[in-house]
Amino acid sequence: MANVTNPSGSSHEGHPQPRQTDRRSFFKWIGAGLGTAAFVSGCDLVTEYGDLPFPFDTGSEDAVTLDFSNDFGVVNYAFALEQLEAAFYVRAFATPFDGITDEERRVLRDLRNHEVIHREFYRLGIPALGGTAIPTLRFDFSAIDFSSRDSVLETARVFEDLGVAAYNGAGPLLNDPEILLVAGKIVSVEARHAAAIRDLIDPLSAFSIGEDGDVELDPADPGAAGRDVIDENGLDRAFDPPTVLAAASAFILNPITTTGL
Amino acid sequence: MEKQTFFSALDPEIVQRVTSRRDALRTAGKIGAGIALASVPAAFGFFARDAFGRSLPNDVTKVLTFALTLEYLEFEYYNTGVNTPGLIPGPAQTVYTGIRNHEMAHVRLLEAALGLEEDEAKPEFNFSALGPDPFADYGFFLALSQGFEDTGVRAYKGQAGVLLPTPDVLSTALKIHSVEARHASIVRRLRGQDGWIPFDNTDVPALAAVYAGEANTTHLGVDALTVSTKSAEATTEAYDEPLTMEEVLAIAGPFIVGS
Prior knowledge:
heterodimer, A: mainly alpha, two-stranded parallel ribbon, B: two-stranded antiparallel ribbon
């Protein structure tokens, strides 16, 4: 098993894990926790706190418009979703849920790293290609109980399944085959994440490969609530941008308008 | 000669025959049974366009034929595995049965899209081509399964650009692509590995070609190593790389012994 990666070694065992009551008190807590955590695990955790936008959440709440009539609109859409996922995992890893196992910690660390890499790739790549990147967004995760395994893993599952459906739906909107290829390179990693999270929730089950025998796929409710993502033809989901953004808007404070669809 | 036989599945004449047969079968209303017929036109919008006399571009037909061959291979492998008594232990049987069902659905969907009868284009396989018999050695069964899934992900990815002019076909291919990636992740985890691919690592030397090029970090001219402070390992994991049709055929060819 040469390919198994080692945990980073950072440890939060015994660390206090209060529930967030509001943004202000949470920041107060994490400000205090930063010194303790850095003392416990050295510079590794300081690096983790460099993963903007949490806790140094500097994003604006300005309105954003995504113009899907050109490829930069599609790429900025992906950038927005990667920002959301990265912010979630930065926080989920920094404030691990109660009773987290080493395996769960490693998965959350890897997903955080991948999503931060995707996010920063878009942030630098969009201007490098001649486009204008949307700003850093601001998020509201108050609906998530970061101390709860169920809350964190179910949110992760929703984000990963939604991300897969978003990329699948966005692919045919692209014009440039090179951008399509990069989207393809990323979406399959999102699908790998989705399967891993599902496997943590319900190991080696039909659920772990994208099905849920107890919950029928509801065509009238294709949003984030769907747990059964593979249909009778063995196909994953593909959502159009308004469907995805409607689901994601529960967590994104910026109003997002779509044009060119 | 194995490879020649395999390549014949993609022979232009066969592709042409498949195309005209599709039209004939459509006329006769003989689209493959056993799948959800109503959703096939939705999955492949070109059926509707065919009604107006337009046909699928040859390069798209070639990609679908290529994909069908890989799906036949995966289906046959898993179907044999789940039906081999004592091979797959308890909970993994649930996973592999589900994966088998997905591959079956992909086979029937692609057959219907190409106007083929059930199993009409199915080759014969030899899954002991690398030496060990995977159906007598669960560890090797898992390893080969991982190789097939990670290859499948790369194969679909490599053809996406060809499908760009036919958005309905591209959409369906993407929806298969992400299912293969889900499979790859769960199979890797069954082997005690992470669901994603660090660098171009493999613990099975015979499968090195499956991972060739996976350590690439340059995308759209941007070196992803430079965009964050994350490790090179994480950066290579964050992107899956494509394989060309030729590279995939070189990997799959040894397992295909006839048609």
